[in-house]
Amino acid sequence: MTLATMEQKMELTLHQTIEKESHKTYGQVNRMWPDEIPPITKEEAFKAYKLLTRKFGSKKVWSEYYNKWETKKLSIGRRRPRRCWICLSGNCNLLDRGWRRLVHDISHRVYDFRFPQSSRDHNIAQAKIEQEMAQYVIGSGWLEGKLKAKPKEKHKEDVVLLRFSRMLKREKVWERKLKLATSHLKKVKREIKVYKRRHNKVSVN
Asked: Residue 99, Cβ neighbours under 10 Å: how many?
């Protein structure tokens, strides 16, 4: 066996080992998710996107200007969530929609940010990032609705104050209408007096 053949075999073996570890990690990620993944709203998806981007989207870069290591942050970028991240009904356990798709997509974005020179898309490093994100999402209670907006409680006093405020506004509106009506009524009465005088002159003649 030649040296070149031995090197090729070693390289192939190393590649196979990396691929095996990568598939193993992806399998662990898939098994982490519960059997029944809950729905996810538009608001939850966008909150999760921003929080995961801030949490995992950072890296150390060397600054030639300051001659030291600095932390670089991944920008939020998006102003709204992807449609495939939202799952309001149906099967939310699939990879192509809902929580799993959201985590998968953001892990790729973070991976591309951390390793911009890498030519491999799905590999052990990307799988590890996705695993960490999935653990964070599940451990933070987001699947139990922690990111949902809390409904505002309306107390009896608040309802009374709200109605009182509305009545005050209505009072001002009707006062303006009354003032306008009174002004028009005065104008009409003046004109009636004028026509009465003219009518009386015509009758006398």
From this structure: 25
Which region holds residue 77: left if phi is over 0, alpha if psi is between -120 and 50, else beta? left
pTM of the model as a whole: 0.65
Q: Provide the 10 A C-beta neighbour count for residue 6.
A: 10
Contacts of 131 (CB under 8 A, 6+ apart): 25, 28, 29, 32
Average pLDDT over the chain, rounded to an integer: 85
H/E stretch holding 35 reads none
DSSP string, 112-137: HHH-TT---SSSHHHHHHHHHHHHHH
CA distance 178 to 142: 56
Q: Provide the greatest CA pair distance for the chain.
A: 139
